[in-house]
Design a protein that fits this description.
- By secondary structure, the protein is mainly α.
- It has three domains: about 5-55; about 65-145, Tyrosine recombinase, N-terminal domain (DNA polymerase, domain 1, Orthogonal Bundle), CATH 1.10.150.130; about 180-350, hpI Integrase, Chain A (Orthogonal Bundle).
- The chain is built from 14 helices and ten strands.
- It has helices at about 35-50, 65-75, 80-100, 110-120, 125-145, 180-190, 220-230, 230-235, 280-290, 310-325, 340-350, 355-365, 370-375, 385-400, and strands at about 5-10, 15-20, 25-30, 195-200, 210-215, 245, 250, 255, 260-265, 270-275.
- Strands 1-2-3 form a three-stranded antiparallel sheet, covered by helices on one side.
- The longest helix has 20 residues, at about 125-145.
- The termini are far apart.
């Protein structure tokens, strides 16, 4: 049985006390400055006690404690090292400093919105969105463990906005290279990156500098990326066993993380089959003749047969090609199109070819059709395009 009664403090100030028993029969008390707030809490607590989900403030975990459980839960469930590392960074660098000491029982949607606003004032918009997503993950786990009744962050979000300096057709997720620039990359690649090159080792007395032929994977890798839309991690972890040149298919089954560890795609949608353009098939057939043979059977390995570092892919492969095409100044550290833009280029070509949203979702490995529309919705034909097509269909059938 709960009650709300007025209480006068020795200082003369008035407080309203809520006296109640929790679902375990333990007596609890909490006071408020106004009767309205006390009655609201009493109503809420009575409902939670009846459902057996009430968590009093004195027994409530803090956001920091819940975040620690979230990280440990990821480790127990075998999440990749990179994912655990990102969780730790979000928690230690952003969540704990701003909201870590707050008790879950006192965390409300307005308090979470204030946290989001603090992030936007001091961090970039993409980082703020990522950290808020992590906090939502922390609170979802807390709810499953009955540490909170509702997730107060569920409806809080960081709205997307077009980045400054992007062209109108670049979309929300990064610039899409123009056809002219895509053609330049593909045309220049054979001259910049032959499939193998002659190198000289260190000077040896009586022998001079021994020569050896070193395979160069950058051209086939970039050609494959441009026509398949595969992620860099998927290209780095691709094995020949998953490439069927006769059927013209690549089956994405694995990826390589930043620590060169091979594992499954990060989601079920990542497992997919991608059709290959003739240029990809021809290039990969030529490349297979000189590709280093090693136990891992990688399509784009290091000279020793291991997993290519992502930084080497950029600094030794992608950036030099961008410079050779005049798309990146010699002193520049970042190109106008990040490597991930080749994925967007492939998607734009698929859409131009007439592929529907569902097929784009499948081939790109998106977790939902909404993700596909969020990224590439502006590239799909508009209703006006559909109307013009129907008018043309009618004209062809009936004339006039």
């Amino acid at each position: 049985m709960a009650s709300v009664r007025k209480r006068v403090l020795p200082s003369g100030e008035t407080r309203w006390l809520v006296d109640y028993k929790d679902q375990n029969g333990k007596r609890r008390a909490k006071q408020f400055e106004t009767r309205k707030a006390a009655v609201a809490f009493e109503t809420k607590a009575r409902g939670e006690v009846a459902q057996g989900v009430h968590v009093p403030d004195s027994a409530s975990a803090t956001v920091e404690q819940a975040a620690d459980l979230w990280i440990k839960d990821g480790e127990i469930n075998g999440l990749e090292a990179t994912t655990i590392k990102q969780r730790r960074e979000h928690v230690t660098l952003h969540i704990i400093p701003l909201i870590g000491a707050v008790k879950l029982s006192t965390l409300t949607p307005p308090r979470v919105e204030a946290f989001r606003d603090d992030l936007l004032k001091t961090r970039s918009r993409p980082l703020a969105r990522a950290v808020l997503t992590s906090l939502k993950g922390v609170l979802r786990l807390a709810r499953r463990k009955a540490l909170i009744v509702i997730n107060p962050a569920e409806d809080v979000k960081v709205d997307k906005r077009r980045a400054e300096g992007w062209e109108q057709d670049e979309g929300e997720h990064g610039p899409i290279p123009s056809k002219e620039h895509i053609r330049a990359l593909l045309t220049k690649a054979p001259a910049v990156f032959p499939l193998s090159r002659l190198t000289h080792g260190r000077w040896v007395a009586g022998q001079g500098r021994p020569e050896r032929i070193v395979p160069v994977p950058w051209r086939p890798l970039i050609v494959t990326a441009t026509f398949t839309g595969m992620r860099a991690s998927e290209l780095r972890g691709l094995r020949w066993a998953h490439v069927d040149l006769k059927a013209g298919l690549i089956r994405v089954r694995e990826r390589a993380d930043r620590y060169q560890q091979i594992g499954p795609p990060k989601s079920k949608a990542g497992r997919r089959t991608i059709p290959l353009a003739p240029m990809v098939i021809t290039t990969l057939r030529e490349w297979r003749l000189v590709c280093p043979k090693a136990e891992m059977d990688l399509v784009f390995p290091t000279e020793a047969g291991g997993v290519i570092l992502h930084t080497n892919l950029l600094r030794q492969g992608y950036y030099p090609l961008m410079r050779a095409c005049g798309l990146m100044a010699d002193g520049a550290t970042e190109p106008p199109y990040p490597f991930h833009s080749l994925r967007h280029a492939a998607a734009s070509l698929f859409i131009e070819q007439g592929w529907g949203p569902k097929k784009i979702q499948t081939v790109m490995g998106h977790s939902s059709i909404q993700v596909t529309f969020d990224i590439y919705g502006h590239l799909f034909p508009s209703p006006d395009d559909d109307r013009a097509a129907m008018e043309m269909l009618q004209a062809r059938l009936l004339g006039g």
